Amino acid sequence: MVLSWKLVIDSTDAPSLADFWAAALDYEVEDPSTLVEQLLAAGQIGEGAVLEHRGHKTFRGYAAVRHPEDPFDEASGVGHGRRLLFQDVPEGKSGKNRLHIDIHSEPGGLEKLVDRLEALGATRVREVDRGPAGHWWIMQDPEGNEFCAA
Known about the structure:
By secondary structure, this protein is α+β, with helices and mostly antiparallel strands. Helices cover 21% and strands 32% of the residues.
């Protein structure tokens, strides 16, 4: 059985947050521009539902990233595997995440990973060193969502 899933993350700027996470995880930003064009041409959506980001038409308020090795629908660009979907919401983040992503480095590569994530726009929050039990950084993405780099 092939299992597909998506983790939906509230955002204030879905396309920009998708860009960050695609770079952080080495995923691909989904390109729904063909589907958007078809829906526009058929009159099923209006121009107000569309946004152009990095030369592609996308749905306003939504953006997704997918694992590059997972299958996807070529007509819509939607992945059928491991995905993150970002959806804009009117309210800002108000507390600690109840769910978060852990990004693991190669052995001995934590500092290099953290430096790379910072260069993409992440922020270091706190270092945790539990000796043999583990060493990681709690970080925030550009919109303040916590994640760990280990």
